[in-house]
Structure formats: structure tokens, C-alpha cells
Amino acid sequence: MNRIRRVGVVGCGVMGAGLAEVCARAGLDVLVAVSRPGREADGRRRLTGSLDNGLRKGKISEGDRDAALARVSFTADLSDFADRQFVIEAGPEQESVKLDVFATLDKVVVDENAILGSNTSSFPIVQLGRVTDRPGKVVGTHFFNPVTVLPLVELVGSVLTEDDTVDVAETFVTEVLGKQVVRTKDRSGFVVNALLIPYLLSAIRVYESGVASMADIDTAMKLGCAHPMGPFALSDLIGLDIVQAISESLYNEYREPHYSPPPLLSRMVSAGLLGKKSGRGFYDYPVREKVKVA
Ligand code: 3HC
């Protein structure tokens, strides 16, 4: 396991930056791919902001923050990933983007034992594997937002993934990154989103039926069920575009009505009201929390 020292993270949005932070704090050499040249500084700013938050909260020392920052480099060119031993793709939930990234990684990553992981929340892992010549090394590594705080990783082997790949990935994620793994089959939503997304969609339907205000629905679930956040605040944290994308993927796979996106969600996504990352979703967020998606 100790052989994995050089990690690549594709994407530096909310999840990519969180993954980079967790890997850097575990002492790994981390290379982050941003979506285009010029976005490197945005990525570093996002990472620094989160590390500063950890420092303020007393989770890390100033020395830990500086050491973690020094372990992370940024690039806009995936061919720089040639020497990576474990790559986690955390790009947008768009089929064409993910397929392109995996086809490119397959060409550039030299080590034939390198593991190519995806943080996808709904896209079939087998399809990512099939655009490579090494589908046995492709695995789903699904982290949760905020990555620095939530301990779970869903580990997803497709019908083409080698058992050894899943075993090595599990040891890496648990022993090196300090997370807890649940293994799941390659089905849309895996475990968490198959249960969570219908709950979030139900909250929107309850609101649209006029039963209670958004704020009261959130308060009810926080105080009545001890959830850390209500469904509207949580949807804003995840991103409404992501909630919609997972909902569509679940609906396409299972055709069950409770997975279909309610009209309000679709209208908000069309309007660019994506939640915390865009500054407005079900709630408004202060300007300082608006960050460009890298
Ligand atoms: N490093 C380490 N720890 C950090 C940190 C950092 N960079 N930043 C914050 N923390 C710690 C804090 O110190 C605190 O820990 P403590 O309770 O031991 O003191 C903890 O994180 C909480 O942070 P805050 O005090 O800043 O914030 P809150 O107490 O308001 O909690 C929250 C915020 C963690 C987001 C909490 O409300 C929560 O857990 N909400 C639920 C989130 C959730 O369900 N996420 C899953 C979404 S689903 C998903 O991601 C899958 C996708 O596919 C859709």
C-alpha cells in the first residue's frame, strides 16, 4: 500500500478541492487538474480557504496547513499525470466529459498497476472502464461533501473491475486517507444517493404541495430527526444541478416515479440557481461563499 505516493485529482470544484486536501493532509504528493489554463490560482485559493478553515477550527496547525499546501501542484494538462499511481476523477457529472477524461488518463498514465477512480455519484463505472484498455483498474470512489469532514467512501467495482483493484483501493482509502469504506454494486445512486435523493426530492414535493415553508421543513428534519441539516440546506450544499443529475440517472435506470426530478428543481437549475456554489439556491448565500467552479 505504501507504494501509492503520487495521486492525481481531476477537477477542482467543491469535491476535487476536498479530495486534494484530504490526500495532501495524508502526506501524499498531489497533482490537481483544473478544467482550463488560468484556473490554477482559483484551485489553490479554494484549497487554501478550506485549510484555513481547518486551522481556525483547530483541526490542523499552521505547519500542517503549509506542509499540505506545499504537497499540491496544479495543471491544466492531463498529460502531466503520467507518473500518477492513483487518480480520482471529480469532474462535472457529464457523460462526455467523464468519458474523455478516462480515455485520456488511459493514454497518459504509465504505471499499468495505477488505479483510475471516479467520484461519480451516478454514472456507470463499467462505461468509464470500457473507454480504457484497463477496465480492470477502474473503480468508483465516491466521497461525500464536505470531504474533509465526512468519513464515508462508497467503493464501487464494475463487472470488469479486478478484485485486486478494489482490495488495493480499499486499503488505500482506509489506511492512508483514514476514511471508512462501504462496498457497493455498480448501480445508479449506489447506496447513499439511492436513499438520499428520493428524500430530497420528496421535501421539494412536500413544499410544493403547500404543507409548510422551506425553513420549517428544514427545522422539522433537524429537530425532529436529528439531521445536521434540513433537506433544502443540504440540496444547496450538494448543488441543485448535481441533485438533478443524480435524480435523472436514478430515474433512467429504475423508472420509479419517486426518482423523477420535480418541476421546481428543474426550473431552478435552468435559472442557474445551483445552491451554495452559485450564491443562490433554495436559500441565499453571502458573496464571500461564491466560488468559481474550476
Ligand atoms: N478539516 C477538518 N475538519 C473541518 C474542516 C477542515 N478543513 N472544516 C471544518 N471542519 C470540521 C469542524 O471543525 C467541525 O468539527 P467538530 O464538530 O469536531 O468541531 C465540523 O467540521 C463541522 O464544521 P463547521 O463547524 O464548520 O460546520 P457545522 O457544524 O455547521 O457543520 C456540516 C457543517 C459538516 C456541513 C454539517 O452540517 C453536516 O455534516 N451536514 C450534512 C452534510 C451531508 O449530509 N453531506 C452529504 C451530502 S451527499 C454527498 O456528498 C454525495 C453526493 O454524491 C451528492
From TrEMBL:
- Which is one GO molecular function term here? 3-hydroxybutyryl-CoA dehydrogenase activity
Functional pathway: Lipid metabolism; butanoate metabolism
Family to which the UniProt record says this protein belongs? Belongs to the 3-hydroxyacyl-CoA dehydrogenase family.
UniProt-listed NCBIfam families: PRK07819.1 (NF005875)
Q: Which E.C. number(s) belong to this protein?
A: 1.1.1.157
Q: Which residues bind CoA?
A: S50, K57, S121
Top enzyme class, one word, equals: oxidoreductase
Specify the protein name. Answer: 3-hydroxybutyryl-CoA dehydrogenase
Endoplasmic reticulum among keywords = no
Where in this chain does the record put each 3-hydroxyacyl-CoA dehydrogenase NAD binding domain?
A: 7-186
Q: Which domain of life is it from?
A: Bacteria
